[in-house]
Amino acid sequence: MLQPSETPTTLLSERDPQPVETVNADGSSPFVLSCEHAGRVIPERLGDLGVGQADMDRHIAWDVGADGLSRRLSALLDAPLVLQRYSRLVVDCNRPIEAPDCFPEQSDSTPVPGNIRLTELERRRRFDEIHQPFHRELAQLLDRRVALQSPTILVAVHSFTPRLVGGPDRPWHLGALSNRDGSFTERFLAAFRARNRDVPSAHNEPYVVDDRTDYTIPVHGEARGIPHLLLEIRNDLIAAAEGQDIWAARLADALVAAKTEKREDTDG
């Protein structure tokens, strides 16, 4: 037990992993991938947040399958990828700090006791040590490309549960999300549907993007004026490696087609 004089001044210790992993930083693709909910690590000093292992395996703790899918997509596209290692239950790296579920006290009917009555200092430490390093890394990568005038398209990779507790079934296999500028999202969806006619897909389902509930697209995509897209894949379809391979190929094909269509439109 820590004595008062031993109270740590930081959340993360030297035994905790770094929050950010960057894959293929110098990839030649115009696509830059982010995966905000890739991991489910909890800092040692937070214990288990009062959440059992069965719930840590669920979508409330991470985006099931998104890590493997985004890595496969990065390899297929030769695209840079920035991943977050810590659980969204510690701090949700796709939320602004003022969002109610940036530090969720409950997620899909599951209580998170370790998040009850957090002090402002506790919230700020999680945000500063886990959330912000991820977004600094992504911002630096994007800014380097913009400075070099390299074509850049931001794609955030997520997954969603087929059904929330007490909610209706979600029929979509793919959701493509946007907010103020849906131009690239619409081109992507058209390309995806042309190649996958039997796969249920939708624009802005099962979620929507806005400034209160999202961070990556408003801050890194819209603010820079670069094309962007948030992908949501139903997590039971990508929980295993085989599904991740299938979906990475589908997504890569449609992304490249959407990019090519824009170039041809510009040339014309």
**Helical residues, percent:** 25-40%
What is the level-2 CATH architecture name?
Answer: 3-Layer(aba) Sandwich
Strand content: 5-15%
Count structural domains: 1
Q: SSE order, as H and E?
A: EEHHEEEHEEHEHEH
Please mark out the parts with pLDDT under 50 across 5 or more consecutive residues, or reply none. 1-5, 264-268
Features:
7-stranded mixed beta sheet; two-stranded antiparallel sheet; 6 helices; alpha/beta; 9 strands
Description:
- The chain contains six helices and nine strands.
- Helix 2 crosses helix 6 and helix 4 packs across helix 6.
- It has one domain: Aminopeptidase (3-Layer(aba) Sandwich).
- It has a seven-stranded mixed sheet with strand order 1-3-2-6-9-7-8, with helices on both faces. The chain has a two-stranded antiparallel ribbon with strand order 4-5.
- With 268 residues, it is an alpha/beta fold.
Chain-wise SSE layout:
Blueprint: E1 20-23, E2 31-35, H1 53-56, H2 66-77, E3 81-84, E4 106-107, E5 110-111, H3 120-147, E6 153-160, E7 174-177, H4 183-195, E8 201-203, H5 216-222, E9 228-234, H6 241-267
Parallel strand pairs: 2-3, 2-6, 6-9, 7-8
Antiparallel strand pairs: 1-3, 4-5, 7-9
Helix pairs in contact: 2-6, 4-6
Give a nutshell description of this structure.
This protein is of the alpha/beta class and 268 residues long.
